[in-house]
């Protein structure tokens, strides 16, 4: 501690200067983040460090400055101290032009001022004002000014540093400054041509011309609760005569009082019973939409089409429905483009699959994509993946308790909750027994269906029902609700028990807990401070907002008088003599409504989660379990599936070519160039369309053998693939077999 204090005291004013460019400017848009390390008496601009010619990232990402070791930075500063900047004539020029025979050196800010080009890709090259890359302008280019498609001001069609043209659109011109700000805001996943939406060609050209595209999500995606309003579902019965005695706003899932929204506008609703709908799968249109279609003459035609579609799918989503022409099917995992695959950033001894467990000697584990560079989004994404892998290992430890003795659950898909509840409450049920699931309403049981497949499907349906049940409230991150009937029937305990059993027995990640609910379970409700986002009741939330944003004592007292009865019920009625008292009052209301009000449900839910020791592990590893309880499961991608399957090598098989066909096919499926999805492939092999939190047992494998068509062995989670001469033959066999097999199962 004394050493740290002495270092802090020795940190003088000079340390606020960047050690590479010598400037004190703090402008992240121009020079990157300015970082100060008190313990090293060091300040540096990130771009100055990234572009310096004599330094490489030799450490891990958490070492030094994003992998640039402190000793290497010191050496680079000493090297640059001998070089004079060709622009400002001062020492410390750490960046050199990469053009052959060019000996110009300069500081990063000086280079920007002199219109040098810095390429934030590959090995981070820099070009001086004489050798910088330029865009070609033909004589046929229109010379009159046009609008910049970002700021809408005029831009000259001249070969200037400040002007850039789109490589994919002839009439798209930009100011360099406008493009740079857009790239910093949009990030690598959303930065594209503003005219034609081209991404790959546009980004490649802009990187060449010195536009920095950060490898992170867009700024608007990173804003917390940015789309909260869009998650609100309309729940109100609008028919002329509502039959529900509990009112038009009453909604009870899986009953005749469940509210169905208009299939066209979604802004009108009806109870199933109020419109004589036999099931939730039936389509319903409000009067406004019906009148619009009636006037256009398309209503009857649309009615017939919707009914036909409803009968065809029989209330379930058909995985194998053929997509329409020119509208390829997209898998739920969207393709990623890793542009900044820099050898400069990657020069430490990392392999593409270094984040995986070491493969056994007799198998070949392959990874689809290189490791992403050290940007915030990829770091968070990788951290979440690492936590989920750790959660998988912990759940496997808990699975040791499971005995070979079996307990059979007879489940009716149309009444999933009551039949599951009955099964969990039967006297012979034990959480530590192996669970077998029998769907009692399946007329024809497919021979390819295994007990594991039925169990996966059951837990998926059960977790989905719990998420949308009256036991929880909220939009995405859910808290416990207050349901007196559920308390009497001990349903909160059963819900906690079901989630614990699902996790250990191979069910999906619940992923819908709010941070507040999770913290209450792990740290205790007395140590949790709820936020306004935890309030699901619109009226209560509006009352809290009115109190919180009152700008005068008189308006605050007036508001309190209006909601005096509510405050008295909550036990939050207190004398208010100053405007600042509102903060304590808001905090009292939040604690009451989110925590104190649901004390009984919370305790009951906690007791249920103690099943098989799950709650104890949650409290021992909160960060790990937060990744599967508070975050939605990772969407399937080609990379995920490629990492999931282990390829067994064989002496008489060209394993490299077979693996290439397999990876190429996954990429085609992910990009929508296939009639099946990644979920279909996983379902074909394992009987599950999701990856369980505990992983698969046994782990999925691939074998290349001399067979006509692929075979999915769900008992062994093994995919046997045919050996073909061409990729097209391989793809055709995969499409035909998977599509027909799953279609036969569903029919």
From TrEMBL:
InterPro entries: EPHD, HECT_dom, Hect_E3_ubiquitin_ligase, PHD-type_Zinc_Finger, PHD_PHF7/G2E3-like, PHF7/G2E3_ePHD, Znf_FYVE_PHD, Znf_PHD. Pathway: Protein modification; protein ubiquitination. Gene3D superfamilies: Hect, E3 ligase catalytic domains, Zinc/RING finger domain, C3HC4 (zinc finger). Residues 316-336 are annotated as: Disordered. GO terms for cellular component: nucleus. Its main location: nucleus. It is found in: Nucleus. GO terms for molecular function: ligase activity; ubiquitin-protein transferase activity; zinc ion binding. The keyword rRNA processing does not apply. The keyword Transport does not apply. Keywords: Ligase, Metal-binding, Nucleus, Transferase, Ubl conjugation pathway, Zinc, Zinc-finger. This is G2E3 ligase.
């Amino acid at each position: 501690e004394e050493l740290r204090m002495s270092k802090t005291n020795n940190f003088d004013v000079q340390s606020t200067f960047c050690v590479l460019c010598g400037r004190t400017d703090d402008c992240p848009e121009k020079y990157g983040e300015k970082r100060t390390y008190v313990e090293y008496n060091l300040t540096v601009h990130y771009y100055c460090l990234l572009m310096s010619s004599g330094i490489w990232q030799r450490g891990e990402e958490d070492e030094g400055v994003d992998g640039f070791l402190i000793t290497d930075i010191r050496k680079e500063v000493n090297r640059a101290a001998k070089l004079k900047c060709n622009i400002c004539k001062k020492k410390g020029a750490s960046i050199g032009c990469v053009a052959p025979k060019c000996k110009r050196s300069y500081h990063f800010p000086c280079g920007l001022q002199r219109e040098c080009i810095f390429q934030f890709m590959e090995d981070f090259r820099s070009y001086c004002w004489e050798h910088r890359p330029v865009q070609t302008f033909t004589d046929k280019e229109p010379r009159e000014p046009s609008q910049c498609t970002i700021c809408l001001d005029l831009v000259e069609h001249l070969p200037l540093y400040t002007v850039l043209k789109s490589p994919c659109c002839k009439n798209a011109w930009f100011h360099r400054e406008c493009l740079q700000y857009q790239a910093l805001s949009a990030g690598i996943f959303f930065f594209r041509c503003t005219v034609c939406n081209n991404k790959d060609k546009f980004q490649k050209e802009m990187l060449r011309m010195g536009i920095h595209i950060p490898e992170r999500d867009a700024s608007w995606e990173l804003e917390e609760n940015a789309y909260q309003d869009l998650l609100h579902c309309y729940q109100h019965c609008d028919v002329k005569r509502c039959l529900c005695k509990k009112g038009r706003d009453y909604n009870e899932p899986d009953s005749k009082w469940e509210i169905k929204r208009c299939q066209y506008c979604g802004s009108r609703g009806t109870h199933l019973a109020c419109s004589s709908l036999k099931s939730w799968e039936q389509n319903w249109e409000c009067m406004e939409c019906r009148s619009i279609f009636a006037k256009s003459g398309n209503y009857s035609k649309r009615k017939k089409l919707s009914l036909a579609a409803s009968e065809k799918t029989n209330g379930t989503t058909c995985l194998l429905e053929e997509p329409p022409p020119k509208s390829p099917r997209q898998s739920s995992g969207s393709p990623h483009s890793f542009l900044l695959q820099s050898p400069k950033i990657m020069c430490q001894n990392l392999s593409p699959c270094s984040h995986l467990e070491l493969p056994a000697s007799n198998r070949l584990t392959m990874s689809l994509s290189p490791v992403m560079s050290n940007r915030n989004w990829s770091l968070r994404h990788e951290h979440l993946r690492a936590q989920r892998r750790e959660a998988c290992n912990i759940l496997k430890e808990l699975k040791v308790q499971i005995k070979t003795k079996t307990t059979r659950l007879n489940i009716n898909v149309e009444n999933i909750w009551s039949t599951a509840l009955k099964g969990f409450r039967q006297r012979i049920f034990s959480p530590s027994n192996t669970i077998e699931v029998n769907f009692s309403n399946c007329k024809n049981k497919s021979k390819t269906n295994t007990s594991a497949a039925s169990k996966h499907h059951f837990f998926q349906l059960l977790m989905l029902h719990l998420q949308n049940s009256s036991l929880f409230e909220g939009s995405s991150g859910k808290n416990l609700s207050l349901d007196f009937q559920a308390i009497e029937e001990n349903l909160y305990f059963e819900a906690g028990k079901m989630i614990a059993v699902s996790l250990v027995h191979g069910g999906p990640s619940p992923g819908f807990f709010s941070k507040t609910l999770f913290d209450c379970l792990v740290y205790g409700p007395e140590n949790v401070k709820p936020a306004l986002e935890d309030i699901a009741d619109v009226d209560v939330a509006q009352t809290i907002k009115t109190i919180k944003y009152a700008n005068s004592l008189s308006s605050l007292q007036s508001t309190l008088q209006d909601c005096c009865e509510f405050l008295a019920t909550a036990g939050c009625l207190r004398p208010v003599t100053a405007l600042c008292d509102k903060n304590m009052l808001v905090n009292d209301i939040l604690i009451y409504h989110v925590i104190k009000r649901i004390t009984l449900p919370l305790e009951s839910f906690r007791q249920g989660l103690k099943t098989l020791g799950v709650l104890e592990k949650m409290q021992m590893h909160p960060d790990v379990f937060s990744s599967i309880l508070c975050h939605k499961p990772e969407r399937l991608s080609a990379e995920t599936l490629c990492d999931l399957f282990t390829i067994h090598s064989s002496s008489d098989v060209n394993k490299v070519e077979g693996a290439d066909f397999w990876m190429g096919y996954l990429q085609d499926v992910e990009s929508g160039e296939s009639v099946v999805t990644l979920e279909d492939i996983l379902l074909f092999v394992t009987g599950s369309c999701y990856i369980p939190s505990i992983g698969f047992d046994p782990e999925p494998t691939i074998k290349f053998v001399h067979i006509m068509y692929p075979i999915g062995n769900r008992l062994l989670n093994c995919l046997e693939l045919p050996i073909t001469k061409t990729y097209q033959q391989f793809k055709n066999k995969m499409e035909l077999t998977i599509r027909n097999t799953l279609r036969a199962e569903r029919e």
